[in-house]
Design a protein that fits this description.
about 300 residues; alpha+beta; 4-stranded mixed sheet; 6 strands; elongated
């Protein structure tokens, strides 16, 4: 199963008798999976099946679905509330005569609430069932398109994340092979530091200083951090190869990468290793940022 992004947009159109059906779907990042709908008045009965259709497709992401229904060739005859219209016209004339108000216009009066109404179309059970089926069928087409859009973006994210993992591995190997970690280099730095201390304070115990220096050298060893980084790299590659909804697992690995790179920087006793650790932190931040878009 491939990777999916949590972001995408899709549109699908269909028809049923004289009804034109249009679905627009939008998906954005989310900690879980959610579905919100905008349905025409009188079609609230579709909310449950639409929500179920969306939630069954995706593991994460906030999804918004908008349904538009347009009736063609089935215009309803408008109804004019003549009594209300007559009362409003009389009121308008009195305002004109008594206060000099501008004369009322026909379109202005007809535009007032309650004067002109277009009755809702009443569907029989058979027609309603057929329309609902067509609406859900069109929704399925829109969901197919949204799933494809998310998969296309997921594939691009996968390539980007694999590149980040390759960079993390390369930097880890550079830290592991850095000349400053060679025993001779470590002994030379310790000897230099001990010599400086003894020269500055001849009364210091040389054996104690050597023991303390050896202890600090052990604390500065980054072997464990390098090994854990290698393990996390292998885990990330395994997850990316398996695919599916792995965003949460990769986010956890991103936190582990960040923890090890921080520790590597704090333990490094050479400028070259510190520089590698800082570069590693930059790549890890980029990796984690992109992981947030993954299902």
């Amino acid at each position: 199963m491939g990777l999916q992004s949590m972001t995408g947009f899709a549109r699908a159109a269909g028809r049923h008798d004289a009804a034109a059906i249009t679905w627009e779907l939008k998906s954005v990042n989310g900690k879980g999976v959610d579905a919100r709908m905008r349905l025409p008045s009188g079609h609230e009965r579709l909310e449950a099946p639409v929500r179920q259709a969306i939630l069954s497709r995706f593991a994460r992401g906030n999804n918004q679905a908008t349904l538009t229904l347009a009736q063609t060739g089935m215009l309803q005859q408008p109804i004019v509330n003549e009594a209300l219209l007559k009362d409003l016209a009389g009121l308008a004339r009195r305002l004109e005569e008594q206060f000099g108000a501008a004369p009322a216009t026909a379109d202005g009066l007809l535009g007032l609430r309650g004067v002109l109404e277009i009755p809702e179309q009443v569907l029989d059970d058979e027609t309603r069932t057929g329309l609902d089926a067509a609406v859900l069928s069109t929704l399925s087409q829109a969901l197919d398109a949204l799933e494809q859009a998310r998969s296309d973006e997921g594939a691009a994210l996968g390539r980007l994340l694999r590149g980040h993992v390759d960079q993390i591995e390369a930097l880890t190997l550079r830290a592991e092979a850095d000349p400053s970690r060679e025993p001779d280099a470590i002994r030379a730095r310790i000897a230099e530091q001990v010599g400086l201390l003894l020269g500055a304070a001849p009364g210091l115990d040389e054996a104690r200083l050597n023991a303390e220096a050896a202890f600090l050298a052990t604390k500065a060893d980054i072997r464990e951090e390098v090994d854990r980084l290698k393990t996390h790299v292998a885990s990330a590659r395994q997850l990316l190869a398996a695919g599916g909804p792995i965003g949460r697992k990769l986010d956890f690995l991103a936190q582990e990468f960040n923890r090890e790179s921080n520790t590597l920087c704090s333990k490094a006793n050479a400028a070259t290793v510190t520089a590698i650790g800082l570069e590693l932190k930059v790549v890890v931040d980029q990796f984690r940022e992109q992981v947030q878009n993954l299902e």
